[in-house]
UniProtKB/TrEMBL annotation:
Name of the protein described by the UniProt record: Uncharacterized protein
InterPro entries linked: Integrase-like_cat_sf
GO BP terms: DNA integration; DNA recombination
Molecular function via GO: DNA binding
Source organism: Azospirillum griseum
Taxonomic superkingdom: Bacteria
Length: 91
């Protein structure tokens, strides 16, 4: 279970709540993570879920940009680094 963090910048529970509130039109069975349009707003499934679902490559780019922004080598990180087993093993 993920618990709320004391630091709002590190609070995954609050971040998820914010993300869900940004997507009030999303169907209950819609993908949780979707691509963003050019304005930075979530793209909801109007044609098919496969066109809006965030793909592996998109997650990898996000991870690499975040890692680079804190001064680490993005070449040593992949989106697979976020999987539950890897994240839990880093505690």
């Amino acid at each position: 279970m993920i618990e709320a963090a004391g630091d709002p910048d590190l609070d995954a529970v609050a971040a998820l709540a914010d993300w869900l509130s940004a997507r009030p039109e999303a169907a209950i069975d819609a993908p949780l993570f979707v691509r963003l349009d050019r304005g930075g707003k979530p793209m909801e499934a109007s044609v098919s879920r496969s066109t809006t679902r965030l793909r592996d490559e998109g997650v990898t780019l996000i991870v690499k940009e975040a890692v680079a922004s804190i001064g680490l080598d993005p070449g040593t990180f992949l989106s697979a680094s976020l999987r539950a087993g890897n994240a839990q093993g880093r505690r």
